[in-house]
Amino acid sequence: MRHNQTTQSDRPAPLPRRLNGRKAPRIRYRGNWALVTGASSGLGRGIARRLAERGMSMVLTGRNAARLEETAMQVRSAVSGVELETVIADLSTQEGVAALIDHVGERPIEVLVNNAGFGTYGPFADADARREDEEIAVDVAAVVSLARAFLPGMMERGSGGILNVASTIAFQPAPSQAVYGASKAFVLSLSQALWSEARAAGVSVTALCPGPTRTGFVDALGADVGHTAIYRRLAEPEPVIDAGLRALDKGRAVVVPGLLNKLSAASSRFLPREWMTLVSARLLGGVRAEPRPPVVVYNEALIPAPVAAVWDLLTDYERWPSWYRACRWVRREPGESEGMRASFRWKAHPVELESEVVTSDRHRLFAFTADGTGVHAKRMFTLSSSPDGAGTVITSYETQVGWLPRLGRHILGPRLYAANQRFFADLAAAAVDRPWSVPTAQAAFA
Asked: Which pLDDT score is estimated for 62?
């Protein structure tokens, strides 16, 4: 199905002004429709508000129903008189992309913002293949599919714009973020090519290439990157949003917000690629980067219960239905409450562990450390609504270092994975108060 077809009478009159022999870019904001992906938070949420301020109605999409609705509520409270529609869609699947395009239907999309995306961090050889496949699907394939669906209509009408959110990582290879860097390099190259093809019709295509920004992206990496020079300081999102929309209005192919980011992007044109790659490796890895832990275990499951129910059970240590089946007891320290700085003790064979909650982001992220003789463990849970909004996708990422996991790495890794699967099964049974079988899950352990 071809979208955004218009009749001759719908098209704007030809623009008299020309820039360098081409039509000046024209975007008719007021009264027209925009599609913003990744609108649940961060840049997507901020861009949605700015477009609403320009009088645009919008289709907002994301995977987290609660946060997407929060975006819609914030936009409605800030700007009245615009129509907002929310679509829960998993853009890592062809079905999710197709459902989003079908929802838009024949209405003309004047502005497309391809903001949805996520990154991964760590050595390529050790990465979780399924997660990186999803990363490519969201960061690359969905961008292509949505541009293909809506750019022809813009060019036919002679107005419109596409803002593709790339990154400064697109300008050089990125050791420790090989797939993410390559994905953003694809988005940058695609945007520049489409800019050339579309500008004769007066349509603007811009690649927005920010540096690390305070958007929740870093938290979603699933890894501690605070030691790296790249992610040590995060920029505020508002100047990035302003720069992107200004560049879209002016018909610029690429915009890199921030002086240091501009210098970094420009240097890639003058230095040998091998040098740039080595510099990137140092900046992304950091001189204090720890070696890979002896034990790394990743589990994922779909629990047929709301996120709030799973969260309440997960963060109440007294109600944990099981803990590795080897746990003798779990006890919260007197006077401690749920949330940051809460601590608890538990005993497993062969050690006793003292634990402390280090992150408690309600309904999203829960992490704690555990220390005992010969072992230091870190455990992080992430929660999100399933694409249909009826269940909870929960992941567990656990690392262990010390002489104990080093000695028993080949035994401990598989045992922890199996124990985590049992824990998820018990968690689900407690959450829905009925028997439940564990779906296929993935593990990566060394």
From this structure: 93
Same-domain status, 241 and 352: no
Q: Name all contacts of 127-136 with Cβ < 8 Å and 24+ positions apart.
A: 127/179, 127/444, 128/298, 128/442, 128/444, 130/442, 132/179, 134/92, 135/179, 135/180, 135/183, 136/179, 136/183
Full DSSP string of 221-245? GSS--TTSTTTSS-B-HHHHHHHHH
**Helices (DSSP H) in 199-325: which residue ranges?**
237-250, 259-267, 273-285, 307-314
Nearest-CA neighbor of 341 among 330, 327, 356, 351?
Answer: 356
Contact (CB, 8 A) for 137 and 183: no
Per-residue pLDDT tens over the stretch 263-311: 888 877 777 777 778 778 877 874 444 456 788 899 999 988 888 888 8
Which range has the top average pLDDT, 221-225, 246-250, 267-271, 348-352?
246-250
Q: How far is CA 327 from CA 2, 247, 249, 343, 423, in A?
A: 58, 57, 60, 16, 11
- Fill in the DSSP letter of residue 309: H
Return the pLDDT at 232.
73
Q: Which of 54, 90, 252, 59 is nearest to 163 (CA)?
A: 252
Q: Would residue 298 show up in a list of annotated catalytic residues for this protein?
A: no
Domain count, the chain: 2
Q: Are 102 and 145 in contact (CB under 8 A)?
A: no
The catalytically annotated residue of 121, 180, 231, 417 is 180
54 and 194 within one domain: yes
Strand arrangement, sheet containing 365-372? 295-303, 392-401, 375-385, 365-372, 351-361, 343-348, 329-332
Q: Are residues 105 and 189 in the same domain?
A: yes
d(CA 426, CA 377): 22
| Pair of tokens at residue 177 | 């973020």
Least confident of 274-288, 344-358, 376-390: 274-288
For residue 414, is it within any domain?
yes
Q: Which domain holds residue 270?
A: 22-285
The better pLDDT of the pair 210, 431 is held by 210
Residues 302 and 405 in one domain: yes
The predicted-structure confidence for 6-16, as pLDDT tens digits, reads as follows: 433 344 444 43
In a domain, 4, yes or no: no
CA distances for 176 relative to 42, 295, 381, angstroms: 23, 19, 22
Residues 249 and 312 in one domain: no
Residue 275 to residues 212, 231, 267, 268, 316: CA-CA distances in angstroms? 22, 20, 11, 9, 50
